[in-house]
Amino acid sequence: MKQIISAIVVFVFVFIASNVWAMNIETFLYANNSTVDARIAYLEKMDYGSMVAGVEGTYKSDDYKLLSIDAGVKSDDFLPGSRYKIGFKGVYADAEKNDNFDSQLASVCFLFGIEHDLSDKINPLNIPVSFGGEISGSPEPLTWDDGETFFDARANVNFHVMGNAAVIVEYRYLRADFEKDGHDWDEEDHNLLFGYKIKF
């Protein structure tokens, strides 16, 4: 499974690198006192909206490490100013619990998200502000290695300080259930991250 994930990550990076000229690359960097997270995504506009593909890595002290890839489509057909996202996310996680258990998880998640621009009429700031959320999860049949289930959710506020850059405040929740050597345990995490996004 690790070899498959590595091959997919290499493919995504090659795909992104081959399309840099299109100026549709978004890079993200988040951090707090215990966590660092980086993401790179490629966007391609289409008749029905846009396609998004990305790679993300997260490291939280000695608790867990995550690597994920995602692909989905965005559209604002239902409500202008809002962008809905639907897609899939592949996750590889390596988690520890009290130095007693070290478990790995691989999963394919269903992914749903939404972004909305705050109306100028109620925005108290002189810069555009948007907010959004995203959830992804995989049931037991789509979770392998030591994993039983995986779920994560995030909500963010974006302050668009430049035309191609934003400062982000993001809350994340994660839960992964494991079973190893007859022991059931879970990794549950609440995390508040600060970061920024730059679009090239």
Structural description of this entry:
With about 200 residues, the chain is mostly beta strands. Helix content is about 10%, strand content about 70%. It is built from one helix and eleven strands. The chain has one helix at about 1-15, and strands at about 25-30, 35-45, 50-60, 65-75, 80-95, 100-115, 130-140, 145, 145-160, 165-180, 185-200. It has a ten-stranded antiparallel beta barrel. The longest helix is centred in the N-terminal third of the chain and has 16 residues, at about 1-15. It is globular and about 55 Å long. The two termini are about 30 Å apart. The mean pLDDT is about 90.
Overall number of structural domains: 1
Radius of gyration: 18 Å
Strand order of the largest sheet: 1-2-3-4-5-6-7-9-10-11
- Secondary structure class reads mainly beta
Q: Show unreliable segments.
A: none
**Beta-strand fraction estimate:** over 45%
Looking at this protein, list some descriptive labels.
Porin; 8% helix; ten-stranded antiparallel barrel; mainly beta; 11 strands; single chain; 200 residues
SSE layout and pairings?
Layout: H1 2-17, E1 25-31, E2 35-46, E3 49-60, E4 64-75, E5 82-97, E6 101-117, E7 129-138, E8 143-145, E9 147-162, E10 165-180, E11 183-199
Task: Describe what is shown at a glance.
With 200 residues, the protein is mainly β. It has one helix spanning 2-17; strands at residues 25-31, 35-46, 49-60, 64-75, 82-97, 101-117, 129-138, 143-145, 147-162, 165-180, 183-199. It has a single domain (2-199), classed as Porin.
